[in-house]
Design a protein that fits this description.
8 strands, alpha/beta, globular, about 220 residues, Rossmann fold
C-alpha cells in the first residue's frame, strides 16, 4: 500500500482526479460549466457526493447506475486516491473526483450543471456555534442552488439524530419540497430503493455494526 505522500504524488497524475484551491478562484476553474464536454464526454446527468472520503459511495453508485456521471468531492487527497484507484481498476468511466473545500463548491460547477447531490455521513457539527458549518445550513444550500438544476435533489444519510432533525427544520423553514425521510432507513427502506442500503460507506458500516439507526432525507431545493 502506498504511503500518504506517495498517494498525494500519484493523485496529481490520476486522469479521473482534479483539484481546485483558493488560489484558483481569481482565474476560475476550466471545468466549470464544461464537465459534460471536457471531463465525461457525454451528456448524462451529473451527481455529486460531498465529503466522499474514500469514495465507496461514489464508486458504488457509479457501478450501479452507468447512465449517470458521479463526482466525489473531498479535501483529503489521500482518501480520494483510494476511490479513484478503485474506479480505475473497475474501469468505471462515469466517475471523477474533485479535491477541494466544499466552501468553494459553487466555483467548480456552472448553472444547472448538476442534477443531484449526496451528503453521506458528514460531520454533524453538533455545537450550536458551528451550525454554519453544517452541510445543509442555508449557507451551503444557497451555494448548491447556483449549480443544481431546477428541482434538483439532495440526499442526506447520517447517523446523527440532531443533524437529521436540524435538516428537516431547514427544509420546513425554507419550504423546500420534502420527498421522503426516515429515522431508520434499514427498517423502512422501500423495496424499489434497496441501493440506499446495499451501498455502504466506511462510516455507515461502522455505525450499523454498532446497532445505530441510519437516517435519510431526500428533498429538492425548490
Amino acid at each position: 500500500m502506498p504511503s500518504k505522500l506517495e498517494k498525494f504524488a500519484e493523485f496529481d497524475v490520476l486522469e479521473n482526479c482534479v483539484t481546485f484551491s483558493f488560489t484558483d478562484i481569481p482565474v476560475g476553474f476550466p471545468l466549470k460549466g464544461n464537465w459534460h464536454r471536457d471531463f465525461f464526454r457525454n451528456d448524462n446527468p451529473i451527481v455529486l457526493e460531498l465529503g466522499c472520503g474514500k469514495g465507496e459511495y461514489t464508486v458504488g453508485l457509479a457501478a450501479h447506475n452507468p447512465d449517470k456521471n458521479y463526482i466525489g468531492v473531498d479535501i483529503k487527497g489521500n482518501r480520494i486516491w483510494t476511490g479513484a484507484t478503485r474506479a480505475r481498476e473497475r474501469k468505471l468511466e462515469n466517475v471523477g473526483f474533485l479535491r477541494t473545500r466544499i466552501d468553494f463548491i459553487d466555483h467548480c460547477f456552472g448553472e444547472k450543471e448538476v442534477d443531484e447531490i449526496w451528503i453521506t455521513f458528514p460531520d454533524p457539527q453538533p455545537q450550536k456555534t458551528r451550525a454554519r458549518k453544517r452541510l445543509t445550513h442555508d449557507i451551503f444550500t444557497n451555494r448548491y442552488k447556483k449549480f443544481l438544476k431546477p428541482g434538483g435533489i439532495v440526499h442526506l444519510k447520517t447517523d446523527s439524530t440532531g443533524f437529521y432533525e436540524y435538516t428537516l427544520e431547514v427544509i420546513e423553514k425554507n419550504r423546500f419540497p420534502l420527498i421522503w425521510h426516515t429515522n431508520d432507513l434499514y427498517k423502512n427502506c422501500p423495496d424499489d430503493r434497496k441501493e440506499l442500503i446495499n451501498i455502504k460507506t466506511y462510516y455507515e458500516a461502522l455505525f450499523t455494526s454498532k446497532g445505530e439507526n441510519i437516517k435519510y432525507v431526500c428533498f429538492q431545493l425548490g
